[in-house]
Amino acid sequence: MNTPIADFVKNYTKSNFSRLHMPGHKGVSLIGCESLDITEIKGADELYSPSGIIRESESNASKLFNTERTVYSAGGSSQSINAMLYLAFLRAEKKYRPFVLAGRNAHKSFIYALAKLDCDVEWIYPQNEHGICRCTVTADVLRKRLKELEHLPFAVYITSPDYLGGIADIAGLSAVCGEYNIPLLVDNAHGAYLAFTEEKNHPILMGADMCCDSAHKTLPVLTGGGYLHIAKGDKYGFSKDAVRATEIFGSTSPSYLILQSLDLCNRYIDEKICEEIKFSRKKCDEIRLVMKEKGISDISDEPLKITADLRGFTPPLGGFSEYFRSCGIEPEYGDGDFAVFMVSPFNHTADFEKLKEAFRSLNFEAKARSEPMILQTAKRVMTVREAVFSQCETVKAENSLGRICASPTVSCPPAVPIAVSGEVINENHIILFKHYKTDNISVVQE
Fold first, then answer.
1. What pLDDT does residue 98 have?
2. Are strands 305-309 and 226-230 parallel, antiparallel or unpaired?
3. From CA 248, how far away is CA 155, in angstroms rounded?
4. What contacts 353, CB < 8 A, 6 or more positions away?
5. Residue 328: left if φ>0, alpha if ψ -120 to 50, beta else—which one?
6. Is 239 contained in some domain?
């Protein structure tokens, strides 16, 4: 597969042109990549008006992912989440205040998108699930929730995979959305590689109308590289405004380093990824066998994400994540309950062996499993936009009871809000703040 963006930049670096254009480093090496860092010079095309090499590269990606249209993002999935909601919002009926129906484990960028668009959200809350990262939404749950609503949402929004590796029944959810003529949007930030597994359970292949991928999370792409995918057929006509949507929420100076990495990733996908994923899956399965011997469950549905359920063990001093760091391993995410490890074909064999040995050497004391940390329904007294754009102040979490959440204060990862902008902070929030070590909260100024 050709790589038009990378080839253009490579040829430009050899051309000996005087760089009397941006950026200011003029290709002089400071960190090593400057010669490849250009801007929209003649022939380089434009991300938000692609008609040349960028459009050609995006078309290559569209063929690989089997989409109607794939648009590049240099602002990660956050930019694409904003764009997805905007595209769906354009078709919303204005007879009543528009809203989206969403799983409650949405990323905080979703909250900020609601604020920018000034639309509301109705939540589907988790059912007896532990923590804030997981919110399993089945077809039956979605159908029941839609029947309960006075008006229909302009979109249904699901996070799949979630931060713990849970994969939703996208095909089932898509069927329900089809019954109501509502587009299904999926935050697939963690699952770009799923299009190339044996199961091919990428959301866009399973019935989602739009989804975003953070290419950099699971593919060999620089941080910030992502995709906005629109499904084959495009029954809602999202494609015609897709580029405009990403432009509204993106920088006017997108990184050509990121664009080159997305371009080169197309060739990797075309030539190598399927076989290399199979090899990495085998290595992950070997680790899961070691975990099983130690009585530790992997609760991830993803083949290349391992989520160790450590709720039955007493954490060591410093926590589970510090234990793995002492073994020379940096986990993707960890709290008092779970340790998450994200794998890609670019991990070395030594990485897999190191993780196996870390699990073999675990010597944590068993304990009774704690009661599930369940996120409960909260009272909303302001719109998301009103709260986000209000005058706010920061208070200690333990002193925030009864205050109105201004911004979704939560660490990244996992960036799943405990309290959402406009909600009154209740006792359940306080318990979860403490559990997730959230010390300070942004609240509306009184």
1. 95
2. unpaired
3. 20
4. none
5. left
6. yes
Cα gap 274→64, rounded to integer Å: 12
DSSP code at position 195 = G
Helix axes 4-14, 53-65, angle to 10 degrees: 150
Strands (E), 263-332: 297-298, 305-309
Question: How far is it, in rounded angstroms, from Cα 157 to Cα 137?
Answer: 10
Are both 261 and 235 inside the same structural domain?
A: yes
257 and 280 share a domain?
no
CA–CA distance, 74 with 102 (Å, rounded to integer): 25
Handedness of CA 310, 316, 321, 325 (dihedral sign): negative
Domain of 397?
384-444
Are both 248 and 394 inside the same structural domain?
no
Sites in the chain below the pLDDT cut of 50: none
Residues 267 and 290 placed together within one structural domain of the fold: no
Is residue 366 domain-resident?
no
pLDDT at 372: 73
How many Cβ atoms sit within 10 Å of the Cβ of residue 37? 18
The domain total for the chain is 3
The whole model's pTM is what?
0.95
* Residue 445 contacts residue 392 (beta carbons within 8 Å): yes
Choose among 213, 245, 250: nearest CA to 74. Answer: 250
Is 375 inside a domain boundary? Answer: no
pLDDT tens column, 409-426: 777 678 999 999 999 999
